[in-house]
């Protein structure tokens, strides 16, 4: 399993280095030493912790849908002209951008600060690794 240094683990979880160190001290994460002798944690254990701690707000509409990738967030930006609009949502730590008609923005009543849900249904998702390799 890959080992993740404490500073990197903190960055992935959005917490301080000290918080990750406390988690290694209280047993939340198992401390390890990397090849250079620095404090590290197991990548899979870190991923499991990240998943257990990631909670987006519940979708207030809860419609029936085959789409599983739903991101509830706040509208943080709307750039619109006569025909098209770009709408930005802040969904937890993620920025989600959608292009839609200006008419749709008006019909949905979207405005800065309003709650909305981004629904993503895609046939292609590209995953990249730090080594620069991509897997489709």
UniProtKB/TrEMBL annotation:
Key words of the record: Molybdenum
Gene3D superfamilies documented for this protein: 1.10.1660.10, 2.40.50.100
PROSITE patterns (UniProt xref): MOP
Domain Mop: 64-129
Pfam families: MerR (PF00376), TOBE (PF03459)
Protein's recorded name: Molybdopterin-binding protein
């Amino acid at each position: 399993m890959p080992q993740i240094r404490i500073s990197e683990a903190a960055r992935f979880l959005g917490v301080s280095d000290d918080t990750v160190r406390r988690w290694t001290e209280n047993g939340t994460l198992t401390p390890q030493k990397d090849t250079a002798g620095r404090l590290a944690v197991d990548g899979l254990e870190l991923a499991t912790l990240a998943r257990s701690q990631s909670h987006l707000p519940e979708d207030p509409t809860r419609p029936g849908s085959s789409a599983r990738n739903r991101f509830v967030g706040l509208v943080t930006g709307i750039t619109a002209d006569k025909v098209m609009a770009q709408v930005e949502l802040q969904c937890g730590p993620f920025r989600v951008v959608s292009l839609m008609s200006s008419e749709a923005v008006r019909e949905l009543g979207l405005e800065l600060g309003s709650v909305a849900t981004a629904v993503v249904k895609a046939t292609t998702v590209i995953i990249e690794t730090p080594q620069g390799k991509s897997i489709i």
